[in-house]
Amino acid sequence: MQTLEICNLTLPIGEKCILENFSLTIPPGEIHVLMGKNGMGKSSLAKAIAGHPDYPISGGEIIFRGENVTQLSPEERARRGIFLAFQYPIEIPGVSIANFIRSAMNAQSKKMETVAFYKLLHENMDRLGFDRKFSARAINVDFSGGEKKRCEILQMLMLQPSFVIFDEIDSGLDIDALKCVAENINSLRSETFSALIITHYQRLLDHIHPHRVHVLENGKIITSGGSEIVKELEKKGYACFDREEKS
Ligand code: ADP
Ligand code: MG
Fold first, then answer.
1. Per residue, what are the HEC states of 59-113?
2. Residue 155's closest CA among 192, 104, 200?
3. Ligand 2 being an ion, which residues bring their Cβ within 5 A of it?
4. Gap between the terminal Cα atoms of the chain
5. Is 38 in the pocket of ligand 1 (CB under 6 A)?
């Protein structure tokens, strides 16, 4: 049974079709990478997989661990183990990190006693080099870019999802923060954990070695392969794959 099977997905936004007959399979235990120029629909795909109401698909199916989740709400998908680490994490004034994570855990039947919850939260914050005082702060409000990304990883460590989409988790991170984020993603690697990493850069992939790399263009995957694709992209840019598609 595959972790994620996206079959012939069509995603319209306004007049435009962002994805057309888009298909992608991610087996259990595998980490895949999705690359592509700006505006190609990578974040839209991530939101459609998570069930974001602004990104309803008009055709195709999303099968998660053998179950058709296409019609399920974002909460129901999250309960089944899908987690999206946002490119632009949302600020929620008045809701602390601790309360936000606790509510999410309760909603996913991962309820913990208060003392045990804070012990685990603080352990994970220490692991991320994230000051414990942040747990009482309103989520993402006045956070730096790096703090927002750490906060996404903290939620992931607490919720222990079986499938994570990282949407440009590496953008705006300094080298130490990048290494820390990568180490924590690697710590989740197992035979049952899968991930889709959306990135523009080789530097994250120096720490996380993916099983497969895909390039998205004009609503479809135009090339798939190993890490050599990332190296080629760094050297030559997306134009090298444009030529491949036309020939
Ligand atoms: P990427 O992540 O690959 O840079 P996005 O998925 O963010 O691309 O965007 C793909 C295209 O869809 C862009 O042209 C963007 O402006 C458009 N788009 C994304 N979300 C919306 C939305 N909610 N409303 C209107 N247009 C959108
Ligand atoms: Mg994006």
1. EEEEEECCEECCCCCHHHHHHCCEEEECCCCCCEEEEEHHHHHHHHHHHCCCCCC
2. 104
3. 42-43, 87
4. 35
5. yes
Q: For residue 219, report the distance from its CA to the centre of ligand 2, in Å.
A: 14
pLDDT tens digits, the chain, 247 residues: what are they?
Answer: 999 999 999 999 988 999 999 999 999 999 999 999 999 999 999 999 999 999 999 999 999 999 999 999 999 999 999 999 988 899 999 999 999 999 999 999 999 999 999 999 999 999 999 999 999 999 999 999 999 999 999 999 999 999 999 999 998 888 999 999 999 999 999 999 999 999 998 999 999 999 999 999 988 999 999 999 999 998 888 888 775 555 4
pTM for this entry: 0.94
SS3 label, residue 169: coil
Q: Confirm or reject: Cβ of 18 under 6 Å from ligand 1.
A: yes
Tell me if 89 CB under 6 Å of ligand 1: no
CA of 17 to the centre of ligand 1 (A): 10
Domain boundaries, the chain: 4-90+161-246
> Phi/psi of residue 43, each to 5°?
-65, -35
Q: Which ligand is nearest to the CA of 35?
A: 1
Residue to probe by mutation, ligand 1, list 37, 44, 198, 222, most atoms within 8 Å of CB: 44
- The number of the ligand 1 atom at minimal distance from the alpha carbon of 198 is 2
Tell which CATH classification among 3.40.50.1370, 3.60.15.10, 3.50.50.60, 3.40.50.300 matches the domain 4-90+161-246: 3.40.50.300
